[in-house]
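QA checklist item 7 of 12: single-chain prediction sanity check.
[x] sequence parsed
[x] length recorded as 424
[x] structure emitted
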Amino acid sequence: MNLKLYHFTILYLSVIIFFTIEKIGVGFKLLLNFIELIFYDADFAINQLSFSMADIFISSIMTIIVLIFLIIKRKKWGWLKLNISLSRIIVVVLVSFFIFAPVIAPFNPDFQKNISVTKLLKPLESKIRIELVNQNKSTTNINEKFLELKNKSVLNTFNSNIIYADSIDTRDHFYYYQGKQKKIIDTEGKALEDFCSIRESLFLFGTDEYGRDIFSRIIYGTRVSLFIGLTAVLITFILGISLGFIAGYKGGVISLVLNHTTDMFLAFPVIFLIILILSLFGGSILSVIVVLGISGWMSLFKIVRTEVIAIKNKDYFLSAKHIGLSASALMNEEIFPVILTSVIVNLVFQFGNVILAESALSYLGLGAGNSYPSWGKMIEDGQSYLSQAWWMIVFPALILIFTLYSANDIAGKINSSLKKKLEL
């Protein structure tokens, strides 16, 4: 029996839910408490709402909804019935990182605590995590209960109640060891289980020089890369389609000017222009998206212009024009369906180019990596620790390679499928 994509996707999501069911449950509980708080104290509830909290709400709900929909629609959605391949598996994993990041990631990507204990940990290495229990008396105040649940569910960059230790000794007193340092925690005569919770924290891909979890940073870096890639490609799509149609449909001086402008951009190494603009205006996410979007429309312009020139003199196009269809209607109804596959192939290839360009810019210190987790920035940071901590550079480099491979492989398969249809 051939394994289909829905087999892997359903199994993969089930595994995610199995290992994160507690976090998902807390997310649902937080959402219910938030809804209750809106009716109790709307102003307080609105003031507490943040992107991180909304992210938890959406991710917790989507994990269950997506799994249910996949089970129901597995035989109806054509893409789910595709055979399994490495590139398709990679796409599923990347999309899950993008949507379910707060659920999958064990830590906030910038979380750091007790760096002397947690820095440069090897993959699969673990440390003892001591979490002090709130000693305040339990309260029935709905606001305080909500804040307590929020602090438990939202991943923060720092938590004063968490201590990482190499080992502990609870025979006489509660001692914990951080390197050569021996420290004591006063339990105030309380039973240990009433004072704190102790468990092992596993760092799947190890940690960096600041003790930040690399697996969590890769997950959130996936969000940044995919968001920049998708939005930049959207800008490329709008510019390439619009200008290509105008040049091909109008012809004359307009076509000549646009075509020579495109040739000039193609002849000039665009990466230098991108670096110049970002150096002058900063490397915010918006700047990176706009610059990468407006620097990649040229190849799509050429495709659209060529197709429009070939189509506009054909009988069916002239007939549609004579019955009074507007230029936009001609584009949507007569031209776009013909060039759709070529456009999709071009955009998928462009998506891979944008992700590579964003990583390169972050590596050079010009991308979004200075403010957000970025694969390129992680690779640049790992370069300084290559002999001490190979995992800092290997894991982000692998995820980048796999992403580029999947984008190019899927574009190639779409192109091959198009050629087979044309031959028929």
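[x] summary fact logged: Strands lie at 125-132, 162-165, 167-169, 174-178, 181-185, 196-203.
[ ] second reviewer sign-off
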